[in-house]
Amino acid sequence: xxxxxxxxxxxxxxxxxxxxxxxxxxxxxxxxxxxxxxxxxxxxxxxxxxxxxxxxxxxxxxxxxxxxxxxxxxxxxxxxxxxxxxxxxxxxxxxxxxxxxxxxxxxxxxxxxxxxxxxxxxxxxxxxxxxxxxxxxxxxxxxxxxxxxxxxxxxxxxxxxxx
Length: 163
Hints:
This protein has four helices and seven strands; from the N terminus they run βαβαββαβββα. Helix 1 packs across helix 2 (46-55). The relative contact order is 0.25. Strands 1-7-6-2-5-4-3 form a seven-stranded mixed β-sheet, with helices on both faces. By secondary structure, the protein is α/β, with parallel strands linked by helices.
């Protein structure tokens, strides 16, 4: 599987919000929907990123963004529609078939928190993996482009130069 990596430094919450908003705008214009996987500790900024991502899309006024830790899935009525999974409670278990159907749906944007709880053999061939790490100066994200996502590397790298 082809991979490319990009490092993004986020000094504060405002930078995390800007990252979510910037990428939402990019995907809305591009109309290419790849699964977005988020990996990181509690409090790393994953849900904050998702909130900014969702709130930057048309239809967000009808979406209440929260971490779907207990119900595992939130669907937001944005354009494009966002399916927001949280696999935290599924550690050691395999999600049901509905998860995989939605994960491979090319008409929606799928965001999965705690992707580390899904065995990599079940990952689709194309995805963007955001690995969140806390640093003394904020957050550092290692963005890995998997498989068919690699052609987007140059476009997203250019877009995120200001981060």
